[in-house]
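Record 1 of the preview.
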Amino acid sequence: MNCGQQLVAATDSAHARVSGVQRELLSLIAEVDRREAWRDSGARDAAHWVSMRYGISGWKAHRWIAAAHALESLPRISNAFARGEVGIDKVVELTRFASAKTEAGLISWAKRVSVAAIRRRGDLEVRAQVQDEREADKARHVSWWYFDEGRRFGLEAELPAAQGAVVASALERLAEQVPAMPGEHDACFVWARRADALVALCSAKIAADPDPDRATVVVHARLDGLESSSAGCEIEGGPVIHPETVRRLLCNARVQTVVEDTAGNVLGVGRMSREPTAWMVRQLRYRDRECRFPGCGARRFTQAHHVVWWRHGGRTDLDNLVLICSFHHRLVHEHGWSVKRDPDGTVRWFRPDGTGYRAGPSLGADADEQVLLTAAG
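->
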C-alpha cells in the first residue's frame, strides 16, 4: 500500500469513527427528548435546545431529532450508519420514509446516489401534513420599514413555499430582462435587478389602478425646494426624497404633489399624474418602436417620458412624449441627462454637462464643434 492509499484508508477509518460517535449522539438526543431533559434550560422545545447547545440550525435540529427516533426501529440503517457506510445526511433523509421492510434495499441504493436524490424521493413519498400547510399559510406576511434616516426602504416577506415560488419565478423572469444600470453588468448585481423588477411590477400596477384615491402616491414639496432642487420632498407616510426622484415618479407612477411654503401652508395641489392612456401608449410604441436613445433599441421595459416635464406644464399627448427604456429614464431624472424632441420628430440627447450626445465614433474636430453649437442653440 503506497502513501496515498494509506492516507485514504486513514481518512475512511476516521470517518467510520465519527459516524459511530454521531450514531451515539443521535441516540442520546432521542433520550433527551423522551425524558424532556431540555426543560428549564431556556429552550422552547428539544429542537430549540439542540440548536442552541450544539450550534446547528433549527431546521437541522428538527431533522436530527426525527431521525434519532426513527433509527430505533431501523436496525440495518442504524448499523450501516455506525460503521460509516452511510453518512449522517443520507441517514437523516432515509429515515423520513424507510421502514423495517424496505431499509435493506434502501441502504444499497443510498450508497449509489446523492443526498439530493434521497431527499427528492423523501419529498415525493412523504405526504405533507395538512396542518403543516395551514400553519405555513397562517404565518405568511409582508412588512416594510424606512431606515437610514429615511433614505432606504426595507422589505421582508414570508410565504408558503408554493406561493413563494410564484413570486420568485416572476421576479427572476423579469430581472433577466431589466437593463443593468452603469457599473452593474456583472452577475453579482442580480440582487439589484431583482429589486428593479419588483419596482417595475408595482409601478405598472399602481399606474393602472382604477381607484385614484387609494392608488396615488402623495408628495409634499416646498416651493423653494422645487425651484432650486435644494430641499427634499416628503412622501406622505414615508421618507424624504430628492426632487429629481419625484420627477421620475411623475412619469411612470400615479403621483400628486402638494406644494407648500416654508411654514407648511398649502399653496396648491398639483395635477395627478399617471401613465398615458392605453390607446396613447399603443400609438407611442407604434411611432417610436423602441427606446429613442441613440443606438439603444430596447423594446422591453420602455416607458412614456414627458419631454416637457409635468411640473413645467407638459401635456400628456404624443407630441410631448417619447419612448425610452427604464435605464435611460433613470439617466434623465437622476443622472443629469436631458432629451428634446423637435417638431419634425428628431430626438436629441444631452449629457449632464449640456453637450449633445451622438452615437458612434467621433468624425473629427469639426463634427465635435458642430455638436457643441447644436447643444448651445
